[in-house]
From TrEMBL:
This is proton-translocating NAD(P)(+) transhydrogenase. It is an enzyme of class 7 (translocase). It catalyses: NAD(+) + NADPH + H(+)(in) = NADH + NADP(+) + H(+)(out). Transmembrane segments: none annotated. Coiled coil: none annotated. Keywords: NAD, NADP, Translocase.
Length: 161
């Protein structure tokens, strides 16, 4: 997850200003960043619950569904700012992607913490599937057919499980 988020941000920063970013590159950078951050923090919380570092009880914050919706809306707003920035790799575009990573990280940790420890094996399978989808997005972004195919296989096999 960390690799997907970092690769998305760094790849956008490395784009030649003369060539700019096409919309496919922007969308896959956003998806890789978002899914990677959710996967990274969600996996860290799942690890903590399984190893007894965190309480295995589900986190029951008041208005937890509203918190998730607000985080999603803020993430979509950052994504829209990135996608509509004229040259994606500018300070605005990079700041929007960093915002996506931060908000998605909070969302991944909150959603995973809201699930009890007994369900963590299922959560880990789902997060593994997410990492496959992030890898698939990275494959599209980097124009690498192997990453795209492997990511699609990991994502779909985890979803089937």
């Amino acid at each position: 997850g960390l690799a997907a988020a970092a690769t998305s941000i760094s790849n956008v920063m490395a784009v030649d200003p003369a060539h700019g970013l096409d919309m496919t590159h922007k969308v896959t950078a956003y998806l890789g960043d978002f899914i990677g951050a959710v996967t990274m923090t969600g996996s860290a919380v799942a690890f903590g619950k399984l190893h007894g570092l965190l309480k295995s009880d589900p986190l029951n914050l008041p208005f937890k569904n509203q918190i998730n919706l607000i985080l999603l809306a803020a993430n979509l707003a950052c994504g829209a700012a990135f996608l509509t920035s004229p040259d994606g790799h500018s300070n605005v575009g990079v700041a929007a992607l960093v915002g996506v990573a931060a908000l998605a990280g909070i969302k991944g940790a909150h959603m995973t913490a809201s699930i009890g420890g007994a369900d963590m094996p299922v959560v880990i399978t789902l997060l593994n599937s997410y990492s496959g989808y992030a890898l698939c997005a990275e494959g599209f972004m980097l124009n690498n057919d192997l990453l795209t195919a492997v990511g699609a296989l990991i994502g779909s096999s985890g979803a089937i499980l």
